[in-house]
Automatic annotation (TrEMBL):
GO terms for molecular function: hydrolase activity. Residues 107-117 have a biased composition (Acidic residues). Pfam families: Abhydrolase_6 (PF12697). This is Alpha/beta hydrolase. Keywords: Hydrolase. Residues 98-117 are annotated as: Disordered. InterPro entries: AB_hydrolase_1, AB_hydrolase_fold, Sec-Metab_Biosynth_Hydrolase. Residues 3-224 form the AB hydrolase-1 domain. It comes from the Bacteria.
Length: 233
């Protein structure tokens, strides 16, 4: 199976390096992506919006034969759901890593402090304690060294959908910084932030207790859960 790996904010394709070997060993082909504007710290970002990231990934789907699995971490979850809206008949499964689909019209995160046309990696004290579980000093230093500013409009653009068949794409949600029961409870309570997740017609929840960046804190465990999700289905 071809698996496209979409990173979250500030990260490029290399952020999946510790995850991909186990997936390849299981017989899959992996395609970790660097999204537009994340190629380097000097890359132009002013004219790049969320739709550009969605269409970039959709073009990678078009370049492959047969069904494709999408894996999206953090903000990459919104991107892969946008791709499921554009290519619902091509996506065998969407795997959301500590992420999920955004409700119609909502941005990924419009509260992060910007700097001009980009969002730099903010200080660690911006994040919650749950975000930073297992993020020791070495991991934080590595993250800081690899971090590339995010195009601001990727964080602030509202997402739009056109095809309800996206809701038929089977989904796996890997919950890290809070247990999956929190998400289930939010759906049951009708919380707006979980509305689009609640509309998915086939979804499973898997727990991987760690912080928000399991590709760094628990990469082998994350890889195993991705492989197991594919094996179950």
């Amino acid at each position: 199976m071809d698996i496209i790996l979409v990173p979250g904010f500030w990260l490029d394709a290399s952020s999946w390096d510790e995850v991909t070997p186990l997936i390849v060993e299981a017989g899959h082909r992996v395609h970790p992506l660097t999204l537009p504007g994340l190629e380097s710290r000097d890359a132009p970002r002013a004219d790049i919006g969320l739709r550009d990231h969605v269409e970039f990934v959709a073009a990678r789907v078009d370049a492959l034969d047969g069904d494709v699995v999408l894996v999206g971490h953090s903000g990459g979850g919104a991107v892969i759901h946008g791709v499921a809206d554009l290519r619902p008949d091509r996506i065998a499964r969407a795997i959301y890593v500590d992420s999920g689909p955004q409700p119609e019209g909502e941005p990924i995160n419009d509260e992060l402090p910007p700097d001009g046309d980009e969002i730099p990696l903010p200080p660690w004290d911006t994040f919650t304690e749950m975000d930073l579980v297992d993020m020791d000093e070495a991991i934080r230093a590595d993250f800081e060294a690899r971090a590339v500013p995010q195009p601001i409009r990727v964080g602030t653009d509202g997402i739009s959908y056109a095809d309800d068949r996206r809701l038929d794409v089977p989904a796996t949600i890997i919950c890290c910084e809070f247990p999956s029961q929190v998400l289930r409870d939010a759906i049951e309570a009708g919380d707006a932030w979980a509305a689009e997740v609640g509309r998915l017609r086939e979804v499973e929840y898997v727990d991987l207790p760690t912080g928000h960046w399991p590709q760094f804190t628990k990469p082998r465990e994350l890889a195993r859960l991705i492989v197991e999700a594919l094996e179950r289905h």
